[in-house]
Design a protein that fits this description.
This protein is an alpha/beta fold. It contains 15 helices and 15 strands.
Length: 383
Amino acid sequence: MDKVAVFIKKYSIGKSSPILCLLDLLSDNYEVDLFLQEAWHMNATVFEKDTIKLITVEGRKENNSIKIIKNIWDFLFGKNYKNITTIDYNRNYKSYICFDPHGFFLCKELFPRSMPFYYSLELYLKNDHFNLEYPEEVMKKEKDEINTIKGLIIQSQEREHLFRKEYNLSDSVPALILPVTYMQSSVKDKSSLLRGKYDIDKNKKIALHLGGIQEYFSCIELALTFSKLENWVLIFHGCHYGEYIRKLKNTIKKNGIKNVYISDEFCERIEDMDAILMSCDVGIAWYNNVSLNFSTAGKSSGKISAYLKFGLPVIAKRYHSTIEAIEDTGCGVCVESFDEIGDAISQIENNYNQYSKNALDEFDRTYRFENYMKEIIDFIERP
């Protein structure tokens, strides 16, 4: 079986469906050496496969070797922690695949002569990398060597255009457009998990806001907006830290809001989200215009594709990318302001079954990973 090398640095792997989908596909077709540095949430089931070897890179030595811990999965289960070695720079792989600038940097540090495939999950632009760590040395190496890549995997044509312009990427470098995908087909089944947990009346509908609970997602404004919608409940589920979560809780308390909840549930694995999504009726994807990563979210948004998988019509802030992903496909409504959310809810309620069916169909057509498996293999096996 041929070998491929994958490079990931500074990323939460177990919560990233695109990473997990690709690793699952690769491990069915190759032996995978997965080089990691500062990676988190390594408890996904794909890491249990015998064809994946996890190699954690600890740091660089003066003799141009890299100190690594092999078989970190064994370490996690108490087996062989002290298996330390140095890497052979002449080791050859059929393909090299790196995620984002930090993965590219790691790949080039380990294998300077490699020509990797570059998988872009986020746009890292010199003057626009909001909330992303992008140190000068990584930026410089990426800009200097980007035209050594064999191909680019990116989520939309809009982002491909921005990437090529930013990096002056040669037209001869091919691109594969791959939206944020999930495994398996859409799901029609429903769950009463959240309704039971929060004792929600059966006559009320549930809107879900997945992802970070931060100011740049306008969670306070969303809470105030939904407080005026009598037949709806809004649930925030996602990571939160710092002062903003306290402000959100204080806003809910101060205004006596009874129909907005902040989930305290921690999902160990990405599939643990299924029952939460199955409990809801509408998905909220509010991206403020603070970065091109937000305004181009559309088919690059993990929350939008997750909503669609479970038949949830989506309400999103209006951008070209969200119109294309949501309105043009009949999967929801895009709005300019919070004042329009009530009307958007009414519009969806008046034709809910059709919106939900469109969401399920669009997921199966555009966001189901299995649709792209052959195309991905063909792409990375390009001569």
